[in-house]
Amino acid sequence: MSTILLMQNLRDCLRQSGHFTKEQIDLLESRSTFRTLKPGDYFSEAGKTATEIAFILSGILRVCYYTNSGAEITHYFVDENNFAADLSSYNYHITSSLYFQAIPKTELVIISRPNPQSSSPADFEWNKIITQITAMAAVHMATLVSPIQAEDAGTRYKNFMKSHPQIIGRIPLSYLASYLGITQQSLSRIRKQATKKGPFPYEK
After folding, report:
1. What pairs with residue 77 in β-bridges?
2. Are strands 106-112 and 52-58 parallel, antiparallel or unpaired?
3. Residue 167, SS3 per DSSP
């Protein structure tokens, strides 16, 4: 699919939100850039300060972090037609503790931080756009964080299947198990009990 057609997804998302005028959408499009990540590439990394927001045109980003013991934990996934950013790092100019990693090839629209020193009308409008986008991203990301661990593993898996059917089958089982807080072996057993559709493409 061409970049022009993919960009339509961003325009549609902004229009459907009801928070943006045509002029604002045009300004956003004129100031945005495109980036393609290969599988395993990072959009944003821990140890750095986030200065960009991404809108995912195609693909999936895995958001993960490392514990003090060195264990890698998958925090959540962000897929097509959603914004992705470490908003704490972005908004407060602090060092990020999260990695945003592409699982398949992932195409992004990149939205850079506004210049707070500028007083031009266009930059004032740009700041308003970014503020609204970060608010939209915050609401969406609040629904994506790892599930309540008090639920049993089977319930957590079924809830993920229900809320993210477009992601199942496109991510490695090891990442999904980490997100659910269980071992890959436990996840395999739960899947066999829950479905007869066969293994995920990524399952080895």
Report:
1. 62
2. antiparallel
3. coil
Neighbouring residues of 22: CB distance < 8 A, sequence distance ≥ 6: none
Q: Is 71 helix (H, G, I), strand (E, B) or coil?
A: coil
Q: Which CATH number fits domain 3-141: 1.20.1560.10, 2.30.39.10, 3.40.605.10, 2.60.120.10?
A: 2.60.120.10
Within its chain, how far is the Cα of 39 from the centroid? 15
DSSP string, 5-30: HHHHHHHHHHHHHT---HHHHHHHHH
Does the predicted model carry a pTM greater than 0.90?
no
pLDDT in tens, 70-108: 999 999 999 999 999 999 999 999 999 999 999 999 999
- Tell me how far apart the alpha carbons of residues 13 and 102 are, in angstroms, rounded to a whole number: 21
* 111-129 burial: b if 16+ Cβ within 10 Å, else e: bebbeeeeeeeebebbeeb
Q: What helix, strand, coil percent values describe the chain, rounded to 5?
A: 40, 20, 40
Q: How many Å apart are CA 39 and CA 48, to the nearest integer? A: 21
